[in-house]
Design brief:
The chain has 261 residues and is of the alpha/beta class. It folds into two domains: 175 residues, Rossmann fold, CATH 3.40.50; 76 residues, no CATH class. The chain contains ten helices and ten strands. Helix 3 packs across helix 5 and helix 5 packs across helix 6. The longest helix has 18 residues. It binds adenosine-5'-triphosphate and magnesium ion. Magnesium ion binds next to helix 1.
């Protein structure tokens, strides 16, 4: 379970990105976060794995307090249970799919072993099995840059699965994909969510896709949660409240998401 209690986030430059966020997410939920550019979507998910520290309130993830005491080995162990997927896939393009998936294990290996590519058999089996689960086992020895965008995102998802995560955080995972491929990738997320009971929290610019795939939608406006409920309860009036104006799907699709790391 993920619990936000009156959580606030102010960046060192003084930008107050999140205010008084109260939120509980149960294990196995599929949550989409929607809102305008700059609303605080990325900030919200980056707090969960302490990519950015909270500056106010209390955050508890799987019974671990995500605070100043969470550091070093404890933080590394904590992060192993949380996968992260980005819009840009973050693959090493000039190397094979299998090596990209195995890259998730490099953090646990000595430099020499990873340099020489001496992966453990158990890791190789885990990597192949993750590729099989996502239906791209036949691409294991293909170079990442020879895959389509959708296949590349599947590889990123497979890499995350080898971590055996309890939670997957996805920051605009389909933003750079065409609608058909984007739907395929969202189905992959849904499969992973339902078959392995992994909590998925995904930032989405495409409202229609958020509604189609997520069980629960959270709408953020200027750092505050203005809607939190089942996808089926979303109405045009709610969307107007989240986005602060009348919107159409084209409107949302036209907005170019930017990644701030
Ligand atoms: N690392 C950072 N340092 C300072 N300010 C930041 C940082 N990251 C985000 N912000 C600011 O915090 C606010 C929320 O940003 P955030 O990236 O969470 O929004 P977002 O909803 O993900 O937007 P987008 O849809 O464009 O990705 C914005 O005003 C942004 O400029
Ligand atoms: Mg963002």
């Amino acid at each position: 379970m993920i619990q936000f209690k009156r959580v606030g986030k102010t960046y060192p430059n003084g930008v107050e990105a999140l205010k008084q966020v109260d939120l509980e997410i149960e294990q196995g939920e599929f949550v989409a976060i929607i809102g305008l550019s700059g609303a605080g979507k990325s900030t919200l998910i980056r707090l969960v794995n302490k990519m950015h520290p909270i500056t106010e309130g209390e955050l508890i993830v799987n019974d671990v307090a995500v605070d100043d005491t969470l550091k070093g080995d404890k933080l590394r162990k904590f992060r192993r249970e949380i996968g992260m997927i980005f819009q840009s896939f973050n693959l090493i393009m000039r190397t094979s799919v299998i090596k990209n998936v195995l890259a998730a294990k490099v953090a646990d290996m000595s430099f020499m072993r990873s340099f020489l590519g001496l992966y453990k058999d158990a890791d190789k089996i885990a990597a192949l099995s993750a590729l099989e689960k996502l239906g791209i086992l036949d691409k294991a020895y293909t170079r990442a840059d020879q895959l389509s965008g959708g296949q590349q995102q599947r590889v990123a998802l497979a890499r995350t699965l080898t971590q055996d995560p309890k939670i997957i955080l996805a920051d605009e995972p389909v933003a750079s994909l065409d609608p058909v491929t984007a739907n395929q990738v969202m189905s992959d997320f849904k499969t992973v969510n339902k078959d392995f009971n992994i909590t998925v929290i995904a930032n989405m610019h495409h409202v229609d896709m958020a509604l189609n795939y997520a069980d629960r939608v959270i709408g953020i406006r200027q750092g505050e949660i203005v809607f939190d409920g089942p996808s089926s309860k979303i109405t045009n009036a709610i969307l107007k409240d989240v986005y602060g104006r009348e919107i159409t799907d084209d409107d949302i699709l036209a907005e170019a998401p930017k990644e701030i790391v």
